[in-house]
Amino acid sequence: MYTWGMPDVRLASPQGRWILLTTVLGSSMAMLDSTVVNVALPRIGQDLDANLAALQWTVNAYMVTLAGLILLGGSLGDRYGRRKIFVLGVVWFAVASLLCGLAPTSGILIAARALQGIGGALLTPGSLALIQASFHPDDRSRAVGLWSGFGGIGAAVGPFLGGWLVTGPGWRWVFLLNVPLALLCAPIALRHVPESADQRAHGRFDVLGAALGALSLALLTYALIEARGGSLAVALTGAAGLAAAVAFVHVERHRPDPMLPPDIFASRQFTAVNLVTLCVYAAFGGFFFLTALQLQVVAGYSPLAAGTALLPTTALMLLFSSRSGALADRTGPRLPLTVGPLLCAVAMLLMLRVGKGADYLTDVLPALLVMGAGMVTLVAPLTATVLASVDTARAGLASGINNAAARAAGLVAVAALPLLAGMGPEAYRSPTAFDAAFDRAMPICAGVLVLGSALAFALVRRPAPGCRRPECRTHGNVTAPPLEADRPG
């Protein structure tokens, strides 16, 4: 399977520690960026004189390219060398981050964020694949556990770090911080990480499928964000997005080596858990986007206070996600995938208490603790059910599809929720207008979560015994479920 032989690096060796360090640094770059930017949005809007649509695109330009290309990024690593593509992703991400940090206008920032997403699609699957391809089988599970644990810590401190940077050096350092991380990560990878590739990787890359998928997401996102105007251009863009989606399905059904094989959805369990994923992560995407703004625009929190306020959710996931997975192994996934979204829905409704001058201990913290409990309950069982619903040989592909689906759901929510809640282009400049729209948005998020809970109760069943179990048991990322790579044979 591996062009350069079977993996034999031991975790306790100096090389093993260097490999772990560089993969943690690489994955943390992308993970940090997905959580810290929300906290910086109000200051970005003030500094660049951007309206709400520009802030939505600041989040979504990154998510469009990341969600659309992440499956292709993993395939490139398998074909051309995982270390090579990982380092390329790190360098690409750093250059795009530099462009973000130096952007003089919101338009240039949005374009640079789209470039950042391409780098993220290259390095995100590559970091875990390097661990799978490098470490001796006896050490692999422990290495993956350390990688996911340290990555979870990075995700947990992301909002706090973002708030500190915005309050202190300024919002541009949210992006510029990636440059020194890349300057540390890339040389270590080139010096200490062995190269590996998959000899089974053959055929042509599904570049057309990846391009159509990303184009469809971009066009539909544009139509949703700009729909307030109701112009003919918006209608045409939405129609073009739907046409691109239909073309994507057609291409995937007829290509010999599709990026997204349609037959994987022949598994009813896999289809069901991805429907649950779409509901859950759409609600999460909208929640974290709007909550970071609500705390600053309406409640009057500083960026540092707003970032710190969000810590309990990711901290709970980091501390208890592995135990939740073990409990789900005993009870089956149906119960946690039903109860978890309901807990998160309650948290969304509790957020209605957060208004002008909201007290953190009595108004904000209870909602975030319930939110964290709900995410702890559902994320680990969701990942396990995805892996258990397909053949072991396709577990990595199934995990990638599920991760991409979650990110796509989040970006659609960020585009659609302000529209559904009646937020105007300048809503974030008015505490009264934003608070009223936020109060309309949270019940919408709660309703989507209730739908996800109902789908889980109706469609999810206990997996067959002896199925594939996840190696990433510790998780702290709130934007997408953890990735799982194919295991070496």
Automatic annotation (TrEMBL):
Q: Main site of residence?
A: membrane
Q: Reply yes or no: does the keyword Cell wall biogenesis/degradation apply.
A: no
- In Swiss-Prot or TrEMBL terms, this protein is called MFS transporter
Task: Tell me the keywords, alphabetical order.
Answer: Antibiotic resistance, Cell membrane, Membrane, Transmembrane, Transmembrane helix, Transport
Residues in a coiled coil are none
Cellular location of this protein? Cell membrane
Q: Where does this protein come from, organism-wise?
A: Streptomyces canarius
Q: Which SUPFAM superfamilies match?
A: MFS general substrate transporter (SSF103473)
Q: Where is the Major facilitator superfamily (MFS) profile domain?
A: 19-464
Q: Which residues cross the membrane?
A: 18-41, 53-73, 85-104, 110-131, 143-167, 173-193, 205-225, 231-251, 272-295, 301-320, 332-352, 364-388, 400-421, 441-460
Q: How does it sit in the membrane?
A: Multi-pass membrane protein
